[in-house]
Write a sequence for this structure.
């Protein structure tokens, strides 16, 4: 029935109307937009006509129930066939209630809370008139110089895949058609956008197909297996061809091999960027290649509307390719119920009740607390409510704690660090505050005030980090240390000899030299979102026990980058960090190992691992092994531990990583409580892509590792028999 409806509509459409469905324009182009009439610069140069706008299929960046309804109203009056617009936006980690950035969410290792964050984001977005979110971003990341690592959940394909599924479930729910509190998800950026050379945004990606399939593709596939409705192309090349023009990637792999029949959209301007890439001589060729590759919607350039008609009429492109894309777009509009209700739940009155409500803020607070990672603690945390605390640093009173993709977030809605700490003190006057330095500059007066403020304190809390513009898209940095003025501030505080805690707000793993050796405790908070100050206070005062674990390694130095746990061993591995024999694979001046490894994180209690064992030393092809460990809370307060299982294939047909995450379990334990944690190991978990890219396992030796992070593990050998 749906197919018939869609086909009937396509039969009614002119070629111009069909091509219009393939165009996405930003809100200022549309009647009813609050910015309508203010199209300047590059937008004006696009040469968009009123007819183009009438036929356009989707809108980028519509915000608020009133505006989206006005745009839809005006469009339906102008569009000859009354085809509703799709409203799309970047709802990456919250709409108005901003959750931690995805890299921080990755450090929670908590799929239920991740799903809940997407569910709340969808609810706030949907009631504001948004139909599609450009999320989740599931690009695997290994280079913290790249600004967009903050938008990923980390360096591991297994963990990223789990988060991809959770986010899609949260955004889309179980019944996208009838559940008006949901939005369609768009997984991005297909493919391998997270591996640009030099950590520089939009830069070349160059890797083997095996590496692509092994590490970078699994999370996209997981999102699509969960029912994700859309895919966004990446800006980068894949095997020498820009993703947006990559027929092998889009048609052969995504469409034919994986069976994806949803909508593919380009990233902003990516169709036209084939010209500077050097694979298209002009916009007509760019349109030809993108449509041939299977890109249905062109975002914010006009190659399709300017040239597809002439390509079809000349016989260079079959009209059936245009029809294919239109069919997918109209099918999604039907699936969202837009032909029956073009406003799809956009409701100003309900929006006022739902957005930033207390329930949503509490969920944001919980996830923020579980996303922070305690990296160091030398008997200074948790703080006590009777202590005199000096809060120093550029983020002490700042609302810039949401990150660069918090599109609708407002600094005024953020719980700031000083406000959060005051709620925990026996007397609010016990807290004194000084900025100490700005993010990238400092004055003698600022330093003097910070020193004077801290002199009488029992404890100094430093609120440090990167301004949000220093990460995110186009926020790449070659030097990933804290800016020098903040390092200078740390030195001034150190001279006072006070117990000192550093709380870090940043969008990437940093080189923490100049920080970690000069303070007594380090809490990596990332960008925690709307409830930042409340969550930080919960952690610093021990109302919540830190449980976050790194989902991306913290480098010892930028010179190691990329540094990641699941690397290859090489033919001349360094057997131990202190082995300095020259002709081994190591640096002369720094260790090979990161400063803090994948999976690392401390707690206010201690967990002891005993009796690590396998149920057998042989795994039959159609059987399973049980790996188990007894975990005991040997400290004096309740806490959560994330028990991690890794496996290594000792000898493969192609080189295998030194270890790969294959499972994890979070356990909550009271003091002196023990539990047995078990994992199942099956033959399917041991498969990999062979020389001919066949996905299978090899009989032979393996090692299982169980521990609290990728470094601190106990090894147990076993053998697969086939």
């Amino acid at each position: 029935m749906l197919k018939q409806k869609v086909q009937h509509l396509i039969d009614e459409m002119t070629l111009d109307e069909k091509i219009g469905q393939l165009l996405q324009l930003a809100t200022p182009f549309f009647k009813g937009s609050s910015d309508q009439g203010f199209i300047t610069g590059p937008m004006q140069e696009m040469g968009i006509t009123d007819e183009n706008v009438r036929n356009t299929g989707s809108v980028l960046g519509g915000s608020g129930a009133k505006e989206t309804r006005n745009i839809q109203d005006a469009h339906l009056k102008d569009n000859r066939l009354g085809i509703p617009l799709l409203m799309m936006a970047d709802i990456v980690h919250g709409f108005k209630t901003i959750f931690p950035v995805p890299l921080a969410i990755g450090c929670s290792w908590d799929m239920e809370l991740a799903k809940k964050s997407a569910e709340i984001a969808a609810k706030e977005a949907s009631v504001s008139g948004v139909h599609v979110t450009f999320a989740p971003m599931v690009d695997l990341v290994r280079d913290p110089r790249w600004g967009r690592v903050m938008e990923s959940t980390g360096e591991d394909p297994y963990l990223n895949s789990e988060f991809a599924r959770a986010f899609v479930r949260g955004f889309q729910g179980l019944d996208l058609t009838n559940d008006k509190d949901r939005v369609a998800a768009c997984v991005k950026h297909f493919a391998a956008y997270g591996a640009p050379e030099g950590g520089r945004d939009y830069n070349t990606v160059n890797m083997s197909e095996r590496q692509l399939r092994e590490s970078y593709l699994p999370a996209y596939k997981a999102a699509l297996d969960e029912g994700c409705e859309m895919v966004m192309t990446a800006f980068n090349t894949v095997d020498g061809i820009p993703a947006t023009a990559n027929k092998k990637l889009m048609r052969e792999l995504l469409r034919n091999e994986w069976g994806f029949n949803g909508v593919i959209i380009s990233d902003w301007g990516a169709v036209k960027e084939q010209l500077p890439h050097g694979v298209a001589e002009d916009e007509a060729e760019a349109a030809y290649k993108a449509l041939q590759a299977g890109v249905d919607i062109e975002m914010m350039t006009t190659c399709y509307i300017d040239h597809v008609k002439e390509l079809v009429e000349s016989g260079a492109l079959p009209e059936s390719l245009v029809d294919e894309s239109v069919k997918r777009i109209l099918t999604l509009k039907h699936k969202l119920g837009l032909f029956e209700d073009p406003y799809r739940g956009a409701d100003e009155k309900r929006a006022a009740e739902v957005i930033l409500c207390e329930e949503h803020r509490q969920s944001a607070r919980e996830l923020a607390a579980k996303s922070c990672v305690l990296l160091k603690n030398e008997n200074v945390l948790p703080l006590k409510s009777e202590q005199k605390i000096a809060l120093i640093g550029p983020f002490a009173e700042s609302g810039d704690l949401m990150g660069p993709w918090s599109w609708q977030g407002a600094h005024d809605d953020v719980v700031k660090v000083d406000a959060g700490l005051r709620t925990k003190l026996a007397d609010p006057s016990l807290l004194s505050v000084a900025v100490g330095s700005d993010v990238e500059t400092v004055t003698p007066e600022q330093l003097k005030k910070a020193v004077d403020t801290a002199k009488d304190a029992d404890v100094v809390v430093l609120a440090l980090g990167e301004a949000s513009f220093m990460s995110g898209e186009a926020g790449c940095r070659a030097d990933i240390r804290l800016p020098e003025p903040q390092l200078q501030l740390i030195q001034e505080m150190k001279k006072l000899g006070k117990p000192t805690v550093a709380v870090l707000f940043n969008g990437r793993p940093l080189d923490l030299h100049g920080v970690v050796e000069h303070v007594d405790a380090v809490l990596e908070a990332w960008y925690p979102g709307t409830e930042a100050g409340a969550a930080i206070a919960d952690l610093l005062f021990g109302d919540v026990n830190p449980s976050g674990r790194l989902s991306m390694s913290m480098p010892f130095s930028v010179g190691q980058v990329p540094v990641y746990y699941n690397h290859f061993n090489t033919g001349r591995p360094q057997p131990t960090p202190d082995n300095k024999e020259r002709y081994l694979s190591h640096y002369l001046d720094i260790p090979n190992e990161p400063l803090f490894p994948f999976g690392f994180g401390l707690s206010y209690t201690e967990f002891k691992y005993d009796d690590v064992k396998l149920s057998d030393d042989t795994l039959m092809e159609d059987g399973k092994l049980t790996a188990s460990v007894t975990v005991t809370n040997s400290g004096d307060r309740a806490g959560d531990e994330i028990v991690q299982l890794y496996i290594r294939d000792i000898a493969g047909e192609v080189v295998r990583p030194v270890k790969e995450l294959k499972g994890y379990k979070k356990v909550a334990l009271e003091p002196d409580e023990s539990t047995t944690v078990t994992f199942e190991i099956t033959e399917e978990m041991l498969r990999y892509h062979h020389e001919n890219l066949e996905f299978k396992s090899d009989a032979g030796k393996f090692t299982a590792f169980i521990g609290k992070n990728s470094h601190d593990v106990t090894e147990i050998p076993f053998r697969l028999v086939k």
The two ends are 48 Å apart (CA to CA). The chain has a mean pLDDT of 96. The CA atoms of residues 116 and 512 lie 32 Å apart. The longest strand covers residues 639-649.
